[in-house]
Amino acid sequence: MFRIVKADINFDFVKRFKTFTTISAILVVISIGLVATLGLNFGIDFRGGTNINYSFENRPDVNVIREILKSNKIEGSVNYLGKNEIAVQISKEISIVDAKEVENIKKFVSETFQSKGLKKIRPYQDGSNKLRLLFEGNINSNEILNTLKSKNFPIENVTSFGVDETSEEKMILHQYDVEFIQLSNLILDKIKEKASGIVKISALEQVGPKVGEKLKQDGVLSIIYALFAILVYIAFRFDSRFSPGAVVALAHDVLITLGIFAVAQIVFDLPVIAALLTLVGYSLNDTIVIFDKIREEEEANALAGKNVLSLEIMVNKALNTTISRTLITSLTTLFVVIAMIVFGGVSLFPFSIALLVGIIVGTYSSLFIASPLYIYFEKRNAKKMAELEESTVQS
C-alpha cells in the first residue's frame, strides 16, 4: 500500500493535544466573534434579491455592465459564468420601483385620475411588480400609460384586467394593472446599447426577503439536525464515550469555516450550506476510522491483559496507524477541490472554498479534537466507575 508517512511512525499526538485544543478553542472563539461582528455575506438565497444571467453573441466586458449598474444606481455584482455569459446579482427584487416611489406613483395617480372615476388603488405587494387601479368607468389603458410615462415613472405597460364584481362599493369596477419596468429588462436594454451582437436573458431567479429568511432558518436547522443525528449514530455505533468528541469536532469545523467566510466576506448561499453538510460527513468519516482503530486497540489490550497499555498509548497507536490513510484521502480530495476553485468559475467558488477549508480543518479536528475528547470522557467514566465500586465495597 502506498504511504506518505513511514509504516513504523510513532508521532506523539497525545503529548500535543493540549496545545492544539487550546489553539482550536481560540480559533473557534475568534470565528464566533467574526460572525457576530462582521456578519456573513448572504447571497440572494438568504437575503432576497434577483439573479439574472445574460448570454451574449460576443464575449462581453464585465466592466461595461458594472458601469451600467452604477450609472442607473443599481447595487449589484457582475461576474462571468462562461465565455459568453455573465451573472448579475442584485440585492433587491425584480421591480426597479422601491416602496417610496410606489407611494409617489399612487399619490400622482390618485390626484390625476380622481375626476375620471378612480375608486381604489390596491396596496402594492412586494414581488408583485404591479399596481392595480379600479375605476368606476371604463377608460383607455393607453391613456393611463402615457400619463404615467409623461412624468418619467418607470412604467412598462398598463393592461386591462377585466372587472371586479365583488367590490366593497357594491358596483362593477374596471381593473387596470400598472406594470413597473423590470430590472432585468432595464439592464438588458442598456446592455444592448453598448454590446455588439445578440444579447438575451438566459435565466432569471428571484427570491423574496421572507422566503430568504425561511431558507436561512432551514439551513441552520439542517446543520443542527445533522449534528444531532451524528451524536445518536456514534452513540449507537460505538458508545456514548465517543459521541461528544465527534460532534464537538464537527461543530469546530463548521464554526471555523463560517469564520473564514465572515472575514473574507465570501458569498454565503444555499450551495455553501450543502458544502457544510458535505464536510460534516467527510470529517465524520475520518473520525469514525480513527475511533474504530481505537476500539480495536482497546479490544487487543483487553485480550492481552488488563491495563497492559495506557489509554494514551492506545490512542497514539490508533492515530499513527491511520495517519497515512487520513492524509492520502485528504490530499486526494484537496486536488479535486483545488481544480474546482481554479476551473469551476465564480458560481462554484463559495462552494469550493467551503469544501477546501472544511477538508483541512476536518482532517485536523479528527486528529486533535475528537481524540483528546474521547480520552477525557473515557477517563471521566473510569473515575465514576471507580468511585461507584469504592462506594459499593464500603457499603
Please describe the topology of this protein.
Layout: H1 17-37, E1 41-42, H2 44-47, E2 49-56, H3 62-71, E3 76-82, E4 85-90, H4 99-113, E5 118-121, E6 130-135, H5 141-149, E7 155-164, E8 173-180, H6 183-194, E9 199-207, H7 209-237, H8 243-264, E10 267-268, H9 270-304, H10 311-343, H11 349-394
Parallel strand pairs: 1-10
Antiparallel strand pairs: 2-4, 2-9, 3-4, 5-6, 6-8, 7-8
Helix pairs in contact: 1-8, 3-6, 7-8, 7-9, 8-9, 8-11, 9-10, 9-11, 10-11
Overall tally of structural domains:
3
What is the number of helical segments per DSSP (H or I, 4+ residues)? 11
Span of the ends, CA to CA: 56 Å
The largest sheet has its strands arranged as 3-4-2-9
Question: What fold name goes in the CATH topology slot of the largest domain?
Answer: Multidrug efflux transporter AcrB transmembrane fold
CATH superfamily of the largest domain: Multidrug efflux transporter AcrB transmembrane domain
**What is the mean pLDDT?**
79
Please report the total strand number as a whole number.
Answer: 10
Biggest beta-sheet profile: 4 strands, antiparallel
Q: Which shape, going by the Cα principal axes? A: elongated
Uncertain stretches of 5 or more adjacent residues: none
H/E series: HEHEHEEHEEHEEHEHHEHHH
Question: Which short descriptors sum up this protein?
Answer:
single chain, 395 residues, alpha+beta, Multidrug efflux transporter AcrB transmembrane fold, Alpha-Beta Plaits, Hypothetical Protein Ta0175, Chain: A, domain 2, 3 domains, 4-stranded antiparallel β-sheet, 11 helices, 60% helix, elongated
